[in-house]
From TrEMBL, chains A, B:
Taxonomic lineage from the root: Eukaryota, Fungi, Dikarya, Ascomycota, Pezizomycotina
The keyword Glycosyltransferase is annotated on this UniProt entry: no
CDD domains: CAD1
Family, per entry: Belongs to the zinc-containing alcohol dehydrogenase family.
Organism per entry: Exophiala aquamarina CBS 119918
Catalyzed chemical reaction(s): a primary alcohol + NADP(+) = an aldehyde + NADPH + H(+)
Pfam family, one: ADH_zinc_N
Assembly and binders: Homodimer.
Keyword match Methyltransferase: no
GO-annotated molecular function: alcohol dehydrogenase (NADP+) activity; metal ion binding
Enzyme Commission identifier(s): 1.1.1.2
Domain Alcohol dehydrogenase-like C-terminal: 193-318
Protein name (database record): alcohol dehydrogenase (NADP(+))
């Protein structure tokens, strides 16, 4: 066993070979006094993983093991760690480090730190931290600063909790930052991994929730997830009954193809925020002030969420019995190929969780 | 004298002849029981007037008398008018009617009414209101619903107050709607008619105010207006010292030529709003969610302001002795030609107020 110097995981070597996973050992960053080592037992398969390995978001540090919806056990904690206990069941999400000193970091906006931003996979650590490229959760272990390691409430099953670490938080943070709650009409665009959490959490927060999708094919699912209403944007005049009525829309769409932004914006009440969390690979939309003038809508984007929001979200999920819709698949060359190929085609309702880590890497 | 069936004013006949004003009589809308007739004594010359008569904002209902920064006297009030007394000194701004019944109208968002939006000039009234095209303040009288007629505090001089009716309110509303006040760092982009009010009002509201301009040519003016700091965007790395530092920016720029939006957005603190009030004639900017992600900035636009905001702004200006920077010019074919020609070239610091109405139209 290479651990604790190395971990073992499934890496992709190039965007051209994005379905070919290679099981290899790779170096972990040097163990720091605030670090926690997590032995991984499950990992969600995030849309980001596919955008990354296919090159859709640009060039990457290959070879790379992706995966940032990690559940496991804290098997070693650094001498100064106070937030996590050895043996605890924990999660790790998409971010693994920030400076901790700047205004953003001190103000629960660590996902917007301008100084150091280490993603859980694919980021090169500064030389003083060892200089390695971070490797994600399609592997046996991750080594992460305690501030990005989260205790998992007992009531949440491992395979249900895993996808919450990125997709769940990505949906939850803009909801709570923009007042989703009783008396508010909230729209969730795009019923995929993030969007299905948008519906679950907006409902759990007490809002009136509308799913907004290209067709009615997912209407039944949306209702089961808790949606109060459903809008299909392939229908004529779909936007007209809802103009000026939404207090918040979280746009979780993974693609902007054929997206008529003006119609979506017309749904918003005066000055209501339209916040994107999906990061399509396509070119952007041309916007001029005139397009925003009829209702003074605010267009924004949201990046993950804070530590506090992560802990609150996990507790809310435990308290309300919120369950991710998960299809389990065993980690391995074949399972990973199937997972990323199907996710690329949106052929999943609504998240894969990788399991079988003991079989792949030993107990 | 044609009044009260008609008013007399200076009209433009086409975008091709936008500097040729023709003095003519034209029909007023039928007098309604909530209407107020205003005998005009002064009118500001707004950038909108030039965008309109030059065709920069598209085709118009010519012949047209523009002008929507109107000061005058209420010489006749309808039988149901309660907000305005006959003989009172009053102002009229850029809007003259909305439905009054919808959520927006009832929620002090009458500038976002989706049902009826009558601009002070250039809007065709529905047939039940007479069907005429509204004519603005380059004329002897306007007839306006009382909700868009505003008593002017005694301490405000007529020629100083006039430009506040559109430019002033346009700057004031996004400031107060987005928390400009003590402890907040506010940026005002574009030192023109609206922008100079942005500095005056942001300062009066207690914010730390930075003027953001293309060069340093207006720095001395900005400081006199009350700016605490000045940023010239033709200097290298101008944005770097200010990244993540602004709580609000009101973009008053009248043109988006050479505007590097990403640099401006990088100035914003996390989730801080970047609100445009200028409406450039050029094409928009391509935006994708990725551009908004480093700080979660919100991009918006703001349209005029509410009745309550207008009254508060005028009182604030009276209480604090705020003075528009005004160059007076007599209304008439020559004066109007000079005013719109110089405004088109930004050759004015920072607003023309048209005077001499008695000479042009009789006392």
């Amino acid at each position: 066993m290479p651990y604790p110097e190395e971990a073992e995981g499934f890496q992709i070597d190039s965007a051209e070979t994005w379905t070919e996973f290679h099981k290899r050992h790779f170096k972990l960053k040097p163990f720091g006094e605030y670090d926690v080592d997590v032995k991984i037992s499950a990992c969600g398969v995030c849309g980001s993983d596919v955008h990354t390995i296919t090159g859709g978001w640009g060039s990457q540090h290959f070879p790379l093991a992706v995966g940032h919806e990690i559940l496991g056990t804290a098997i070693r904690v650094g001498s100064k760690v106070t937030l996590i206990k050895e043996g605890e069941r924990v999660g790790v999400g998409a971010q693994s480090f920030s400076c901790g000193e700047c205004k953003q970091c001190k103000n629960e906006n660590e996902t917007y730190c301008p100084n150091i931003m280490i993603d859980t996979y694919g980021s090169k650590w500064p030389e003083e931290y060892g200089g390695v490229v971070s490797q994600g959760g399609y592997s046996s272990h991750v080594r992460t600063n305690e501030r990005w390691v989260f205790p998992i409430p007992e009531k949440l099953d491992t395979n249900i909790a895993a996808p919450m670490l990125c997709a769940g938080l990505t949906a939850y943070s803009p909801l709570v930052r923009n007042g989703a709650g009783p008396g508010k009409k909230v729209g969730i665009i795009g019923l995929g991994g993030i969007g299905h959490f948008g519906i679950l959490f907006a409902k759990a927060l007490g809002a009136e929730v509308w799913a907004i999708s290209r067709s009615r094919s997912k209407e039944e699912d949306a209702k089961k997830l808790g949606a109060d209403g459903f809008i299909a944007t392939n229908e004529d005049d779909w936007e007209k009954p809802h103009r000026f009525s939404f207090d918040l829309i979280v746009n979780c769409a993974n693609s902007s193809k054929g997206f008529d932004l003006a119609k979506y914006l017309s749904l918003m009440d005066v000055h209501a925020p339209f916040v994107s969390v999906g990061l399509p690979e396509e070119a952007g939309q041309e916007i001029k002030a005139q397009n925003l003038l009829s209702n003074g809508v605010l267009i924004g984007a949201s990046h993950l969420g804070s530590r506090r929001e992560m802990l609150e979200m996990l507790q809310l999920a435990a308290d309300k019995g919120i369950k991710s819709w998960v299809e389990e698949i065993d980690i391995g060359e074949a399972g990973l190929k199937e997972a990323v190929t199907r996710l690329k085609k949106n052929d999943i309702k609504y998240r894969f969780t990788l399991t079988g880590y003991d079989k792949a890497f030993g107990a």
